[in-house]
Specification:
This protein has 12 helices and 12 strands. With about 325 residues, the protein is α/β, with parallel strands linked by helices. α6 crosses α8. The longest helix is centred in the middle third of the chain and has 15 residues. The relative contact order is 0.13.
Length: about 325
């Protein structure tokens, strides 16, 4: 009994982030819809977790909810708990959240131009983050910021410190966002499509920096459509569809032994590096509108295995063994 208790304590110590039953809704002119429905997952210290799924599934909303950056209105976190290093972020006031954002939790936004202030020079925005969270002279903060611009491959970094965001290309803006997210060595990095606007060479450079951060026990929640990036960077994978997480597991479990029909469809759509020219397989249909999610399983209309019960009730997450779980009735009764 004592050994079991010690194992549970060790497991709890490894947890950096724990999200439980997170539900987020938005109220707009057309009505109210649920963007994230009862989302639960964990991120351990030093772990990179990939969040994948088609556009409109709720990935970015889930990510923005963690540091409580959901714009309100129109967004509302209806329920749930977000535990980070032993404290529930849902209970913190604005001042306490500002202390955590940037220092302990950094975010790389999908649209850097909307995240960077158009009225302030790059250097000013970067050193503001350093001066807010660290007791350093302004000159030293400037040197740190310029050094990080060089690390992420910004040419003429000293000159770029005096530029405004609109004077830079989308790729440069994205690299600046990445530098700002990494430079304080946060405990958790939330990266929403961090390398979409970057060429392959720069992507490799950025991923090398992130791997180096992992050696310092930095964790990451990585949102991406690129399954190649997921394989390269992630330890575990969360598959999201139409506001719900439908499968979770290690990288090897999800890639080599997918259990949910949606995950299988995503993997079948990846181009194969073979000598044969085979047509890509697609998932028929489209992600349903969040205003009109079907009753039961949200994937039912696109699933070739759909049964009557799929149209009546939502499947629970069945245990497939060793932390691998899939929310599909096909898993019922199968050995874990």
């Amino acid at each position: 009994m004592q050994t079991t208790d010690l194992n549970l304590q060790d497991e709890q110590k490894e947890l950096l982030l724990s999200v439980r039953d997170l539900t987020v809704s938005f109220s707009v002119d057309d009505g109210t819809f649920t963007a994230a429905d009862s989302i639960s997952f964990d991120v351990k210290t030093g772990e990179t977790v990939g969040l994948v799924g088609e556009s409109g599934c709720g990935k970015s909303v889930t990510a923005l909810s963690i540091p409580r950056l959901i714009p309100s209105p129109p967004g509302t976190i209806e329920s749930g708990e977000i535990w980070f290093e032993g404290q529930d972020l849902m209970t913190l006031n604005s001042s306490a959240l500002r202390d955590i954002r940037g220092r302990d939790i950094s975010m790389i936004f999908q649209e850097p131009l909307s995240a960077l202030s158009p009225l302030h020079r790059i250097g000013q925005q970067m050193i503001e983050t350093i001066l807010l969270h660290q007791d350093k002279p302004r000159k030293q903060a400037w040197e740190i910021a310029e050094g990080w611009l060089k690390k992420v491959g910004i040419p003429d970094a000293g000159d770029r410190m005096f530029a405004y965001p609109f004077q830079l290309s989308g790729g440069m803006q994205q690299r600046i966002m990445i530098a700002m997210a990494l430079m304080l060595s946060p405990r958790l990095i939330i990266a929403d499509e961090p390398t979409t606007a970057l060429d392959v060479t720069t992507q490799a450079q950025i991923f090398a920096l992130i791997r180096d951060m992992k050696q310092h026990q930095t964790s990451m929640l990585l949102i991406t459509h690129d399954m190649g990036v997921v394989w390269e960077m992630c330890d575990r994978i969360l598959v999201m569809y139409a506001s719900r997480i439908v499968e979770t597991g290690s990288r090897e479990d999800v890639f080599f032994n997918p259990r949910h029909p949606y995950t299988i469809g995503l993997l079948q759509a990846i181009p194969k590096l073979t000598g044969l020219r085979e047509p890509l397989k697609d998932i028929p249909g489209q992600v349903p509108s969040p205003f009109d999610y079907p009753k039961g399983c949200h994937f039912q209309a696109r699933c070739v295995f759909a049964m009557d019960r799929c149209r009546e009730s939502s499947p629970p997450a069945y245990d497939c063994g060793q932390g691998h779980r899939a929310a599909c009735f096909l898993m019922e009764g199968r050995p874990a």
